[in-house]
Specification:
Mean pLDDT: 82
Strand content: under 5%
Distance between the termini: 55 Å
Order of helices and strands: HHHHHH
Largest sheet: none
Number of domains: 1
Number of helices: 6
């Protein structure tokens, strides 16, 4: 029988618990989720109040897509519901919804379709920026949004 599984507090040769990083990350996941939501609200307010440097931090560089912001918030809320509220079903629903949005966006890009992007409130801002030659690149330029 493997003692690493049955005794998770067993110390390794350096005197540290083998799972200390895992426990540390588990302990701060709520904090990271809250910080992610706050940062997402700040970025999204750039679209609402027409403050471009909030969603495009480098002048002429790539901007944060609205669906990316929404998907990140869904994942953060999923984490908070799962850990803080101990609600696993709503947490799973939000996580699957985030995955579905990402999948639909990927299908849009690959097949040059408009499935979910027209539903975003500021899609006109994104299209205007693209028409001006500014980018909304994803994956460091490997996939370009047209």
């Amino acid at each position: 029988m493997d003692h690493h599984i049955t005794q998770p507090n067993k110390k390794n040769d350096l005197g540290h618990s083998k799972y200390s990083w895992t426990r540390f990350l588990y302990a701060i996941q709520s904090l990271i989720a809250y910080m992610t939501i706050v940062l997402s609200v700040v970025i999204y307010s750039g679209y609402i109040f027409d403050i471009e440097y909030l969603y495009r931090p480098i002048a002429g560089g790539a901007a944060t897509h609205e669906l990316t912001i929404f998907t990140v918030v869904l994942i953060a809320l999923s984490i908070l519901l799962g850990k803080v509220a101990k609600k696993s079903l709503p947490s799973l629903i939000l996580a699957y919804l985030a995955g579905l949005i990402a999948l639909l966006r990927l299908v849009e890009i690959i097949f040059n379709l408009e499935i979910i992007s027209p539903l975003t409130p500021f899609s006109s801002v994104v299209k205007a920026a693209i028409n001006q030659g500014l980018s909304h690149e994803m994956c460091n330029g490997l996939i370009k949004v047209k």
